[in-house]
Design brief:
Glutaredoxin, five-stranded mixed β-sheet, four-stranded mixed β-sheet, 15% strand, binds iron/sulfur cluster
């Protein structure tokens, strides 16, 4: 169950369907009209809970709608003569196919027992880690395998999980193929504990695979044995860093370790350790089954697809899988349905790559989403987040929010990151309150460069991205804050005064929404704001259809 559907009560909707139809999940009504299936995330989180009937998606379903849906009152075509498949966006044990369609590739590879062939195929496919840095997965496998062979040490597979629920058996098959390739006998799925339904689904899937002897001793009668364990993550952004993750697996504090110690050579309990993001692992069975050429045809420059999370000021935020090389604008328009309130607002910037990603201005929306293109412009693939912001958002305020978050997530081990992020936060706080100077901008830039060059781990290095990209593309806005003492977006309250210009038509809309009643209002006459009473909430700025409310 996706978090959106879960939070919005999908389980109650499912229970209501069961009650109304008199059947359980996976069953068909005696009249053969309805089969009730629980589905994974359907990718429209803002519209949750979702019900899918054949190809039709019904959004924001409430238990009280269920009866009407079954009577056909929610359909354009109310004559439901053909059998219908109902899918509620919630949890389903293991897989709708019952597991029959999985593991055929693994079975074939197990028989061949040729790790070099698996590694060569993954290397040729040019699959890159989907966790952010984009390291080539085949190269990583090769390093682990070499260490295993040279030192006769059993390897370990560690998978950092966030999206297990989408296709758990495919993920387990990917882990098994990786284990076969790097000669691992033990694997871990590291999971954050917040999302209970996905965790339960993962345990179901592992138990199922164990019951079929895909996990365990002498798998399917071969001499390959592999055990897979689930570890609940210690939480925190930094535990996503591979060396910190391995530390937590060994019961230690989740702090990054020096990079000269390669995890591929000496990771979990000093064994060669193959660490991968779960999205990367999910690609492996398909590559091994369909071949390198199939995979390399998908995507432009970087190969394959990427899960992207679209959020912010778009009509349809949600989760989407797109070929690498798709442009940012294609995602915003074709998936997101464009910006909200397009008549009033325009896109000001997109924040790409998650908390340590970069800010890109609206004239860069045709940029292709691939590892190298994003890096060149000061962003990263990171978590695949694309957050769209309209012209009512202030860059200084957005950056302050971001740096405050990052400062809280720093593990504190090294000075540049621990002190640098704290200082950057303080400077941005001052700028947003009208206490900044030009020197602060130079200092901010210095701090970011120091973070990039001297931080101990990638977290600190990439934490420079939001600062440097904001200063690079929105320098003018920063100067306006420190020099002109004005925030044109009307967000930083100390730097904002709303005024009504003579374009005002006297429509009275602003006066109606003003929470303090401080707008002098007479129909068809110029309206005036009483600055003494104005609390700078921006509601008048937001509603005016004539651009008559402006920031001075
Ligand atoms: S860069 Fe930040 S997160 Fe990484 S070790 Fe230093 S303080 Fe910790
Ligand atoms: S909403 Fe705009 S046009 Fe209407 S009264 Fe207010 S300022 Fe004037
Ligand atoms: S900013 Fe808010 S309080 Fe001030 S005039 Fe506009 S609506 Fe009223």
């Amino acid at each position: 169950m996706g978090p959106g559907c879960h939070a919005k009560g999908a389980q109650t909707v499912l229970d209501t369907f069961k009650k109304e139809l008199g059947i359980s999940e996976g069953e068909t009504t005696p009249c053969q009209k309805y089969t009730l299936l629980a589905s994974n995330c359907l990718g429209a989180c803002d519209q949750a809970p979702l019900v899918k009937i054949n190809d039709q998606l019904i959004t924001k379903v409430n238990p009280i709608n269920v009866s009407a849906i079954l009577k056909g009152e929610f359909f354009n075509d109310t004559s439901l003569d053909t059998p219908e498949i109902l899918q509620i966006s919630t949890n389903h044990p293991v897989c709708a196919c019952g597991g029959d369609k999985h593991f055929s590739t693994f079975k074939k590879l197990l028989k061949e027992n040729n790790p070099e062939k698996i590694i060569e195929t993954i290397r040729d496919s040019r699959l890159q880690g989907r966790g952010g840095a984009g390291f080539f997965t085949g190269d990583k496998m090769q390093m682990v395998f070499n260490t295993h062979r040279e030192n006769q040490l059993d390897s370990v597979v560690v998978v950092n999980s966030a999206i297990f629920e989408l296709d758990p058996l495919n993920v387990i098959e990917g882990i098994l193929i990786s284990a076969l390739a790097v000669r691992a006998k033990l694997g871990f799925i590291c999971y954050r504990n917040e999302h209970l339904p996905a965790l339960l689904k993962m345990n179901d899937a592992i138990n199922w695979a164990r019951s079929k002897n895909f996990i365990g001793k002498n798998i399917l009668g071969s001499n390959f044995s592999f055990d897979l364990k689930v570890r609940h993550g210690a939480g925190g952004f930094i535990v996503g860093e591979s060396s910190a993750l391995v530390q937590t697996l060994m019961g230690k504090v989740g702090e990054p370790q020096a990079k000269y110690i390669k995890l591929a050579q000496s990771g979990y309990k000093k064994r060669p350790t193959f660490i991968s993001n779960i999205e990367t692992i999910a690609n492996i069975p398909q590559i091994m089954e369909k071949g390198v050429d199939w995979f390399r045809k998908i995507g432009h420059h970087s190969k394959g697809t990427k899960l992207l999370s679209l959020s912010g000021d778009v009509k349809n935020p949600g989760f989407v899988e797109a070929p690498l090389g798709t442009t940012i604008n294609e995602i915003i328009q074709n998936v997101g349905g464009g910006i909200t309130s397009p008549k009033k607002r325009t896109i000001k910037f997109v924040q790409v790559g998650g908390p340590t990603g970069g800010y890109l201005p609206s004239n860069m929306l045709e940029l292709k989403i691939d590892y190298d293109s994003l890096k060149e412009v000061g962003a990263i693939m990171g978590s695949g987040l694309i957050s769209v912001k309209n012209d009512r958002k202030c860059l200084v305020d957005s950056l302050l929010y971001q740096i405050t978050y990052l400062a809280g997530e720093s593990c504190g081990k090294c000075t540049p990151c621990r002190e640098g992020l704290y200082m950057a936060k303080r400077i941005l706080h001052n700028i947003s309150r009208g206490k900044g100077s030009k020197n602060d901008l130079a200092l901010l830039s210095d701090i970011a460069q120091t973070l990039r060059e001297t931080s101990f781990c990638q977290f600190g290095k990439t934490a420079s991205n939001p600062i440097l990209s904001a200063l690079r593309y929105f320098e003018q806005e920063f100067f306006e804050h420190v020099d002109g003492k004005i925030c044109r977006s009307g967000v930083c309250k100390e730097l904002t005064q709303f005024h009504i210009n003579d374009q005002c038509t006297g429509c009275t809309l602003c006066a109606k929404v003003c929470p303090t009643g401080c707008i002098t209002s007479r129909k068809k006459e110029l309206h005036i704001i009483d600055q003494q009473k104005c609390i700078k909430c921006g509601a008048c700025f937001e509603v005016c259809n004539f651009k008559s409310v402006e920031v001075r």
